[in-house]
Design goal:
The protein contains 6 helices and 11 strands. By secondary structure, the chain is α+β, with helices and mostly antiparallel strands. The radius of gyration is 48 Å and the shape is rod-shaped.
Length: 284
């Protein structure tokens, strides 16, 4: 039985001669390794003991190890980005980019021969992005409709102001007299910037004009209007040319959320609730 001093300087054993030969074969001991018989205190090198000469002459047998440890697959950055952009698609148009990156990620992972993972993330990114793209028109439609309605209201109010101004200019050129109610459109059409001023974008396109003149101002002097800022001059109607009258000529279907565009004799315009129309000042 032998005692052995290892490469770490520690003493091991006792071990048999056969075990010591295995250590030599495994490379755990060599000719310079110090050993002693268990029954003595004298240390000597393995190379000086003849019975181990044949074993020391053979190269150590090393375990079969792979040339290099396999590299674990990494997650595709495109797949992660696709899913993030797909989720953010609810806030904007990032879903389009998310869909494209998800498809690219799937192709990239397929060609990576196992070096990339994240196929599930890429598929989720494609699905989420596609869902938001399909839902986007429905999500944006209310905003588009609201924006369109607001633009139509602004356009209509500008029309009313233009018509007010044209009537006032006509009066100033005609001894301060309002135009005849029966021909008011004819009388002022050359004073407006464009014929579009007679048409509301929300009205029936087949009509030439969507506004009416307060019939009670027919041919009267502007000086006779006691309260111009409260007296109706022009207001919305269903449509027609040279239409005039009072609150009974309001549109059958209101175009601006239950309100009617009204132009007053001092030139300003307001959106007025339908319920207030009979309460407005129609008499000069």
């Amino acid at each position: 039985m032998y005692k052995v001093i290892g490469a770490d300087g520690k003493e091991y054993g006792p071990i048999t001669a056969n075990q010591l030969r295995q250590w030599i074969t495994q490379g755990r001991a060599n000719a310079a390794t110090k050993v002693r018989l268990e029954t003595t205190n004298e240390w000597q090198t393995l190379g000086s003991i003849s019975e181990f000469g044949d074993t020391l002459a053979q190269p150590p047998t090393l375990p079969n190890l792979p040339a290099s440890a396999p590299t674990p697959p990494r997650t595709s950055g495109l797949a992660i980005t696709s899913l993030i952009l797909g989720v953010l698609g609810a806030c904007g148009f990032t879903a389009i980019i998310g869909l494209i990156l998800g498809i690219l990620a799937l192709v990239q992972i397929s060609k990576s021969e196992g070096r990339l993972k994240g196929q599930g993330l890429a598929i989720a990114g494609v699905i989420v992005s596609a869902v938001f793209l399909l839902l986007m028109p429905a999500l944006l439609l209310p905003a588009f409709s609201k924006g369109k309605a607001k633009a139509q209201t602004i356009h209509c109010m500008n029309n009313v102001r233009q018509l007010n101004l044209a009537i006032i200019m006509h009066a100033q050129s005609n001894t301060n007299t309002c135009p005849p109610a029966a021909t008011w459109c004819d009388r002022i059409q050359n004073s407006v910037i464009s014929a579009n001023a007679f048409k509301c974008k929300a009205g029936d396109e087949t009509h030439r004009c969507h506004y009416a003149f307060n019939a009670r101002l027919d041919g009267i002097s502007m000086d006779e209007i006691k309260n111009p800022s409260q007296t109706v001059m022009v207001f919305e109607t269903d449509g027609g040319w040279n239409v005039s009258g009072g609150s009974e000529r309001k549109p059958t279907t209101l175009r601006h959320g239950g309100k009617v565009a009204i132009g007053f004799a001092d030139g300003h315009a307001e959106l007025v609730d339908e319920s207030r129309l009979p309460q407005l000042q129609w008499e000069p």
